[in-house]
Amino acid sequence: MFRFSVIELKRQLAYPVTFIIKLILPSIVKILGVFLIWQAVIYENPGGLKDYSASFLSGYSILAPAIYVFLRPEHGFIIREVYDGTIQRYFLLPVSFFSIAFSRHLGFLIARMPEILVAFCITIYLSGSQLSLFQFLVFLCFCFMSSILLFLCFCAAELVSLVLEEGWSISHILDRIVMVLSGMAFPITMLPDSALKILQLTPFPLMSFVPTYQLLNPSGASFSFEIVKLLMLYSVWILLFALLSHALYETGRKTYSPYGT
Question: What is the pTM of this model?
Answer without folding.
Answer: 0.91
